[in-house]
UniProtKB/TrEMBL annotation:
<feature type="active site">
    <location>
        <position position="254"/>
    </location>
</feature>
<dbReference type="GO" id="GO:0009015">
    <property type="term" value="F:N-succinylarginine dihydrolase activity"/>
</dbReference>
<keyword id="KW-0378">Hydrolase</keyword>
<feature type="binding site">
    <location>
        <position position="256"/>
    </location>
    <ligand>
        <name>substrate</name>
    </ligand>
</feature>
<feature type="active site" description="Nucleophile">
    <location>
        <position position="371"/>
    </location>
</feature>
<dbReference type="InterPro" id="IPR037031">
    <property type="entry name" value="AstB_sf"/>
</dbReference>
<protein>
    <recommendedName>
        <fullName>N-succinylarginine dihydrolase</fullName>
        <ecNumber>3.5.3.23</ecNumber>
    </recommendedName>
</protein>
<feature type="binding site">
    <location>
        <position position="218"/>
    </location>
    <ligand>
        <name>substrate</name>
    </ligand>
</feature>
<dbReference type="GO" id="GO:0019545">
    <property type="term" value="P:L-arginine catabolic process to succinate"/>
</dbReference>
<dbReference type="Pfam" id="PF04996">
    <property type="entry name" value="AstB"/>
</dbReference>
<keyword id="KW-0056">Arginine metabolism</keyword>
<feature type="active site">
    <location>
        <position position="178"/>
    </location>
</feature>
<feature type="binding site">
    <location>
        <begin position="141"/>
        <end position="142"/>
    </location>
    <ligand>
        <name>substrate</name>
    </ligand>
</feature>
<comment type="pathway">
    <text>Amino-acid degradation; L-arginine degradation via AST pathway; L-glutamate and succinate from L-arginine: step 2/5.</text>
</comment>
<comment type="function">
    <text>Catalyzes the hydrolysis of N(2)-succinylarginine into N(2)-succinylornithine, ammonia and CO(2).</text>
</comment>
<comment type="subunit">
    <text>Homodimer.</text>
</comment>
<feature type="binding site">
    <location>
        <position position="114"/>
    </location>
    <ligand>
        <name>substrate</name>
    </ligand>
</feature>
Length: 448
């Protein structure tokens, strides 16, 4: 028997890639659209992400690192008809189709909440941890991530006795899947069977059902159901809910922009879900009536302030018997949000501590603390079975900091994306990274 007591929630954060830039690629994501064409600082972005990982490791969390993808993505550019040497491909794309080039240069795989949906072994029929990479069909620049994401996940969780890897769902809008950003697992103890909560934006096969009208609903009900089937989840351990279409139209492009959960706690906005009262009742019943809900009223924090501050794109962590909330600096700068949070901390709520991080580089593309991490619950044996070189430590932090300082630029704007030198810099950085993290050949340029 495996011990269920010593299971932990590990957080695997995406390391920001060397081509991090602001291209305004995500219609419906307010921050991405409003920072379009501004210059980015990839070095600062990667260091900000590493600082969060190191701080959570120091606080006692199990913290992992997921490698970025190879960008510019030359294979995709060639598939789209650009030919010749790598330099020719980049220059022709830059001239004829700068938006497509920008999409093929995005470092968006940093937001690993969208890498996959993960079901812990305590919930699955075969007792393995299941991973389904998200197809991210709604945005072209993200739809080209899942294949390499799958390889990186396999290189991180390779032992087939414990880990089961699925292919991404079919890459069409009907099965639009945004991964863990729309999935939360509730439980009493991490190692015990839990309740997997799947949130979707619309129904693909029933156009009479409610849907947003201004911005796209990226994730479908049919995708959520398919993932639950693939992972072998018990019906009684699954709850589905639809996002409130009105909040999608206000910029809530993923559920993790309006709700977050941990163990038996749900922290959400009053307007997060359709039929919210019913949804919370169902969750409470599935958790044997031992379920805490902190529902933030619109009168205290408007949906607009929630989107601007990323209050709910926080991480709720269990550390030394306390619940800590990890928030971006933007929460401190939004008065209604900060008042609410300090009241929570100082009052009788179950949230006892606030940890504030500067993640401005990622936030300017709509990626807060929760977007940057993929949660993987692991029991003791599974912890031992995962690739130890991807786990944060004093040594890995200093190695990765040196690596970033050596390889990354401190400024990228649109014009730089066609520079063949950027491709070479990115490839040599990633080549070294695969050795640091012992990943083997996960990138297309390394395949023979
Ligand atoms: O998919 N932004 C990402 C942000 C993802 C946030 N993830 C979660 N909420 N879990 C997206 O919209 C912007 C890229 C650009 O515009 O350059 C971008 O892809």
């Amino acid at each position: 028997m495996t011990s269920t007591r010593n299971a932990v929630e590990a957080n695997f954060d995406g390391l920001v890639g060397p081509t991090h830039n602001y291209a305004g690629l995500s219609f419906g994501n307010v921050a991405s659209q409003s920072h379009s064409a501004q210059a980015s600082n990839p070095k600062q972005a990667a260091l900000q992400g590493l600082a969060k990982m190191k701080a959570l490791h120091d606080a006692g969390m199990t913290q992992g690192v997921l490698a970025p993808q190879e960008r510019p993505d030359l294979n995709t550019l060639r598939r789209l008809g650009f030919t010749g040497s790598d330099a020719n491909v980049l220059q022709a794309a830059g001239k004829q189709a700068p938006k497509i080039l920008a999409a093929c240069c995005s470092a968006s795989s940093m937001w690993t909440a969208n890498a996959a949906t993960v079901s812990p072994s305590a919930d699955t029929a075969d007792g393995k941890v299941h991973f389904t990479p998200a197809n991210l069909t709604n945005k072209f620049h993200r739809s080209i991530e899942h294949e390499v994401t799958g390889r990186i996940l396999k290189a991180t969780f390779s032992d087939e006795r414990y880990f089961a890897h699925h292919q991404a769902l079919p890459g069409v809008e009907h099965f639009g899947d945004e991964g863990a950003a729309n999935h939360t697992r509730f439980c009493h103890e991490y190692g015990q069977a839990g309740v997997e909560f799947f949130v979707y934006g619309r129904y693909a096969f029933d156009s009479r059902k409610p849907a947003p009208t201004r911005y796209p609903a990226r994730h479908t009900y049919e995708a959520s159901e398919a993932v639950a089937r693939l992972h072998g989840l018990q019906d009684k351990g699954v709850v589905y809910a639809q996002q409130n279409p009105d909040v999608i139209d206000k910029g809530v492009f993923h559920n993790d922009v309006i709700a977050v959960g941990n163990r038996n706690l749900m922290f959400c906005h009053q307007e997060a879900f359709l039929n919210q009262h019913e949804v919370l009742k169902q969750l409470t019943a599935s958790m044997n009536n031992q379920f805490n809900v902190i529902e933030v009223p619109s009168a205290r924090v408007s949906v607009e302030d929630a989107v601007k501050s990323y209050l709910f794109n926080s991480q709720l962590l269990s550390i030394d018997g306390k619940t800590v909330i990890v928030i971006p600096e933007e929460c401190q700068k939004t008065p209604a949000v900060w008042d609410y949070l300090t009241e929570l901390r100082d009052g009788n709520s179950v949230i006892n501590e606030l940890k504030v991080f500067d993640l401005k580089q990622s936030m300017s593309n709509g990626g807060g603390p929760a977007c940057l991490r993929l949660r993987v619950v692991l029991n003791e044996q599974e912890q031992t079975a995962c690739n130890p070189n991807t786990l944060m430590s004093e040594a890995l932090y200093s190695r990765l900091t040196q690596w970033v300082n050596l390889h990354y630029r401190d400024r990228i704007s649109e014009i730089d994306l066609a520079d063949p030198q950027l491709l070479l810099e990115s490839r040599s950085a990633l080549d070294e990274l695969t050795q640091i993290l012992s990943l083997g050949s996960v990138y297309p340029f390394q395949q023979t």
